[in-house]
Write a structure and sequence with these properties.
The structure holds 2 protein chains of 2 kinds. Chain A is mostly helical. Chain A has helices at residues 11-33, 35-38, 49-60, 62-73, 83-104, 113-116, 123-149, 153-161, 163-183, 201-224, 234-262, 273-293, 296-300, 302-324, 340-363. Chain A has a domain at 188-337. Chain A is globular. Chain A starts with 10 loop residues before the first helix and ends in an 18-residue tail after the last helix. In chain A, 48% of the residues are buried. By secondary structure, chain B is of the alpha+beta class. Chain B folds into 2 domains: 5-201, Alpha-Beta Plaits (2-Layer Sandwich); 203-238. Chain B is 31% helix and 14% strand. The longest helix of chain B has 29 residues, at 214-242. Classes of the chains: A mainly alpha, B alpha+beta.
Chain lengths: 381, 262
């Protein structure tokens, strides 16, 4: 196996190693000392950075269901080469989120309770089930990659028989719980700032996760296409960029239409803690990338797409963190800033995710060769 | 038929003696120190606003937000009124702290096996036919225990008898769908720390409206996705049949494969 040879030390590997070590140490402290000693969470602010990270992880993992739907359900077979990287991204994203949830839960040893103790009225209950079921679907979508490595073709055929219903189930589960993260906040109209609270939160969360998922796909192909390998042609990447532009435009229309209907647009006229956070999120993370993506030259060049996709992802992150943190703050009386250990745990887990992707991409057949132009139509999963 | 119980809390009669808290602490075997805020060792506390005293405690809502958000049903609403917590079920997600419109639950942040703590509405005393410890301890009758219906009548009667003594509102009668804590106040409620903008709709309905759509999303979504799969799949089959061997031309065909960069 690859691991036998001592890995070469590169700056990225050193940083990842340090972050993972610091995160592990902080996690040990959290479990031995409790949440109070290691976080800045309080009775007044019981959800903080970790919930925000869950939103981000799940949102980036939307790469998985959007690409699976495009290729296997809508037969946009040109995108076949990025199906596996997207599934891997989603799989890792979900595992990381589960990891953070277990650290965040006050009684992690009770994590299995929602399986047997039901409350179908709870959004949290629904999310738990969706995450569990979708992780199962993802592992089935991921299994053929592992089985291929070990030349076990019989089970691949078996999984392939069931693949269509499973892929539909996966897309539905993703739709449900991507939107349910927004539904979590429907019940706190008295606490979440009106710039973020909306009865349409589930819709807005769903629409924005499609943009972030596709941005993540583009960014990945840009990063992974570096060493003489081309995952997606310039044309196909530009098309994805066009779709992101459409999604961003739809998002902005829905969001501002809803704000106008609720009469909160006036709050943007004065500069406050919250309106500044809103302006930053919308202008830098939604409007600017939308404008840039309308320029064909930007969509078609690596140098254009890199910053644009990063802007889209940053806007998405800002939206989720503003909903989870900024919008729940009351400036200046009730504010929250994460503790060092909360941050270290998040960074450590993100580093684990990146390292896992790098290692798995090396060990397993994640990147199939780009199909030859004259190739036979291949519907392999 | 169980009669729903409630407390009638008359701000105009409270003298701020804190006997309710003392009685509560004895009943629940909590640290007897005097506390002015809700905490792990104070399930009730008095807020003071210009000589007016207001009791803060779990409102034991009729349609409780905490019960609705708890993913494992660790919080339940009993028929007689108390919202009861079962620490054995709790996974520690803290959604109840996040969602409670009255910001009541307190969390054992210091512990590695944390629970929430809040007023129990003396559920165990009620089961024995006793009134709550705070009502028993109150020397002036500012806290009165009884059937919810009877207490609502009494509150209306008090307001009728002495017009001008109270503002014309019983807080908790309809707020967030009604609570077990019914307040009378001589001054507008927002002046003594109440959130008067919560509305009469129970908070859980806000979530139910969205979650009610889940069955439609699943049924319509699965048919839609299967339909799209079938149509796009069929289109591919037709294309293969009609032009064997040829790369698909035509306006609708994907553009990428033949323009692959080296």
């Amino acid at each position: 196996m690859k691991a036998l040879a001592l890995p070469r030390l590169t700056p990225w590997r050193v940083i990842a190693g340090l972050l993972i070590a610091a995160g592990t140490g902080s996690a040990i402290a959290r479990f031995t000392l409790g949440l109070g000693a290691t976080t800045h969470l309080t009775d007044q602010f019981p959800w903080g950075l970790w919930i925000g990270f869950d939103f981000l992880g799940i949102g980036l993992a939307a790469a998985g269901f959007t690409i699976v739907a495009a290729v296997h359900l809508f037969h946009a077979t040109d995108y076949e080469p990025i199906v596996r990287p997207a599934i891997l991204t989603a799989f890792i994203g979900y595992l990381l989120v589960v990891l953070v949830l277990v650290i965040d839960l006050g009684r992690p040893e009770h994590f299995w309770h929602p399986l047997v103790m039901w409350n179908p009225h709870s959004v949290m209950f629904e999310i738990t089930w969706c995450v569990i079921l979708y992780s199962t679907v993802l592992s089935l979508e991921f299994a053929p990659i592992v089985l291929e490595k070990f030349h076990l073709h019989a089970p691949i055929k078996w999984i392939h028989t069931f693949s269509l219903p499973f892929m539909i189930l996966g897309v539905l589960l993703s739709t449900l719980h991507q939107s349910s993260f927004g539904s979590l906040y429907l019940i706190v109209p008295n606490r979440l700032h009106p710039l973020w609270y909306s009865p349409l939160l589930p819709v807005l969360f769903f629409v924005s996760c499609i943009a972030s998922g596709l941005a993540m796909v583009i960014l990945e192909t840009l990063i992974l296409s570096r060493n003489g390998r081309t995952l997606l042609s310039t044309e196909l990447r530009a098309d994805l960029g066009k779709i992101i532009a459409v999604v961003l435009a739809i998002y902005l229309v829905v969001r501002f239409q809803d704000m106008a209907a609720r009469g909160v647009l006036g709050q943007l006229r004065t500069f406050t803690y919250h309106s500044l956070a809103f302006d930053g999120e919308i202008l830098a993370g939604f409007v600017l990338p939308l404008i840039l993506l309308l320029v064909p030259g930007v969509r078609r060049s690596r140098r254009g797409l890199y910053p644009v996709t990063i802007l889209v992802l940053a806007g998405f992150a800002a939206n989720r963190l503003n909903t989870a943190i900024t919008g729940m703050e009351v400036w200046p009386t009730r504010t929250y800033f994460p503790s060092l250990m909360e941050v270290l745990i998040v960074l450590g887990i993100a580093a684990i995710g990146c390292s896992a992707f790098a290692v798995i991409a090396r060990v397993l057949p994640i990147f199939e060769p780009v199909p030859a132009p004259e190739g036979t139509p291949d519907e392999s999963f | 038929m169980v009669h729903k119980k409630a407390l009638l809390l008359d701000v105009s009669m409270c003298i701020g003696c804190n006997s309710c808290q003392a009685g509560c602490k004895v009943e629940n075997q909590l640290d007897p120190k005097v506390e002015s805020f809700l905490s792990l060792t104070a399930f009730t506390a008095l807020d003071e606003y210009n000589g007016k005293f207001v009791r803060r405690l779990c409102q034991h809502c009729e349609v409780p937000t905490c019960v609705s958000v708890c993913p494992v049903a660790a919080l339940t609403k009993s028929e007689a009124g108390p919202v009861v917590y079962d620490a054995q079920k709790c996974i520690g997600c803290r959604y109840c702290l996040q969602a409670c419109p009255f910001r009541v639950p307190r969390y054992e942040w210091h512990s590695t096996h944390p629970r929430i703590q809040k007023c129990t509405f003396c559920a165990s005393r009620q089961a024995r036919g006793l009134q709550t410890a705070c009502a028993e301890a109150c020397p002036t009758g500012a806290t009165k225990f009884g059937d919810r219906d009877a207490l609502l009548l009494e509150a209306t009667e008090r307001m009728r008898k002495e017009p001008g003594r109270y503002v014309d509102r019983i807080y908790g009668q309809e707020d967030v769908g009604g609570t077990s804590m019914l307040y009378l106040s001589p001054v507008p409620f927002e002046q003594v720390g109440f959130d008067t903008r919560l509305g009469q709709t129970p908070m859980p309905l806000l979530t139910h409206r969205a979650m009610d759509k889940i069955p439609s999303v699943v049924s319509v979504g699965s048919v839609l996705l299967a339909g799209i799969w079938w149509i796009t799949n069929r289109r591919g089959e037709v294309r293969r049949q009609e032009g064997p061997g040829d790369p698909p031309p035509g306006p609708g065909s994907p553009t990428g494969a033949s323009k692959e960069q080296p």
